Amino acid sequence: DAGVHSKAWYAATCDRKMAEDALYRSNKDGSFLVRKSSGQDSRQPYTLVVFYNRRVYNIPIRFIESTRQYALGREKSGEERFGSVAEIVENHQHTSLVLIDSQNNTKDSTKLKHIVRVS
């Protein structure tokens, strides 16, 4: 169990469009939620959705079978790994999360500050 089901930031029945719409409505930097990934792939079960600088970032949360841990984004050397999705969220409420815009090749960073509920 990733430790997501009882969390206020977990939007169980939310798809990508609903998540993005909710974050645009919040319009606050650092707004976020976690949703199930669209692909329903066991190696990428969830997506962290973050609003920053008038943009929404969908960051895949990977499950690493060999260590039973979670990590963000594409696999990279020296990446941070966590025992649960909840630990990722808690960590990035205090430590900045790097946001990479692949279209414009820019990097930003923000902390996870505002939980967005999808209604």
Automatic annotation (TrEMBL):
Keywords: SH2 domain. One of its GO terms (biological process) is cell surface receptor protein tyrosine kinase signaling pathway. One of its GO terms (cellular component) is cytoplasm. InterPro entries: Immunoreceptor_sig_adapters, SH2, SH2_dom_sf. It comes from the Eukaryota. The keyword Hydrolase does not apply. SUPFAM superfamilies: SH2 domain. PROSITE patterns: SH2. Pfam families: SH2. Residues 9-116 form the SH2 domain. Gene3D superfamilies: SH2 domain. PANTHER family: B-CELL LINKER PROTEIN, SH2 DOMAIN CONTAINING PROTEIN. This is BLNK protein. The lineage of its organism: Eukaryota, Metazoa, Chordata, Craniata, Vertebrata. The gene is Blnk.
